[in-house]
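Posting for a labmate who doesn't have an account.
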Amino acid sequence: MAPPDVSRRIEKTMHDVEVVAFRTLDELERWRTGKSARPETIRIDLLAALHEIGIDFDHLSKKLRLTLEAFAHQRTVPLAAELAARWPSRRSFYRTWSDEIHEPPGSFLRRVRTLHAARLMDDGATTKEAALRAGFGSTDRLRRLLKQRDSGERENE
């Protein structure tokens, strides 16, 4: 068990070894008993977010696919600055992003964060635990986004 910042540092330094980090004893217990059936990485949520905005992951440019794939194995959603840091220049990253994904990186990552938190809560995490693990600064922010998402889905039905 470790705080999120320590877990992230360990995960970044251990490239060839799979690190399993738990933020609470309940999370450890769910993992140990096998009650967390779905993987906790953000890959599923990243692909779902792309699907929601009508983009096929396989049709993205190789460089953008590799950038997103590099973060897909993480358990928390990165910041836009972390994505941009993998490119030779910020300007190049944002230009490529806007050419291929017609949603700003911050909005897209917020969408991924919301999907990830919702999935964590479906797996039994508390709202607070899901908000922290998905990368939200507060549970209030997560609740507002989930409420907006729910009302948007009802309008589309």
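Reply:
Got it, the structure tokens are right above this. The chain is about 65% helix and 0% strand.
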